[in-house]
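note to self: dont lose this again. the chain is below, predicted strucutre after it. 207 aa total, dont forget to put it in the shared folder this time
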Amino acid sequence: GYLTIREHLEMPGPLDAVAENALDVPHTAFVHAGLFRKNKDRTPIEVVIRTLDGGVEAEFIGEERPKGLVGRILAPQGGEVLHWDRFLLPSIAQVEYRISERSHIITTAALTPRAPDVTDLFATVAVKAPVPNSILRTVFKPVAMRILKQDMEILRRQTAQVERFGGEDFASTEIDVLGLRIKKLLREAAAGRPSARPEERRIKMLV
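---
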């Protein structure tokens, strides 16, 4: 069966920044080095970006099991990862990893703006791994909380810089696969405009 963990965290930053952080794969090799991925171990993969009705999804193809602690817990024997990241209106961020029939993790976070620079994150993490749930809870939850606290610190610094300079002035590249699309979805929803027609795009990136 699955181990289910629920947490409520107060994240520093606006909703779109918190969602983008949760769904940004490249940052994990730097912010969570050793826990999830490592910069020196990054390899090229293909990403399929799909525009959905009221959302967007990125599927990562050819990704090997992350070499950090989380990957070793979920799949001690290694293997290829099936990996999807999703943002669904109005404010759902979802990350899903499947390594085998015995290893599956899906994190669903509902984001609620409390203030312009504060977002409440209500997360449910369901994990299945080839170890007993009693051991999994002892090991996995502290690691997951450490990852979340690292994300909170990065968001805190980003929010402080935005305040310092009086607004956002970000630059994006092709590997920011979901960030700009999340902002676009939120703008269109706020304006009452229908979301874009379903479409698909493929790019290459390092993870």
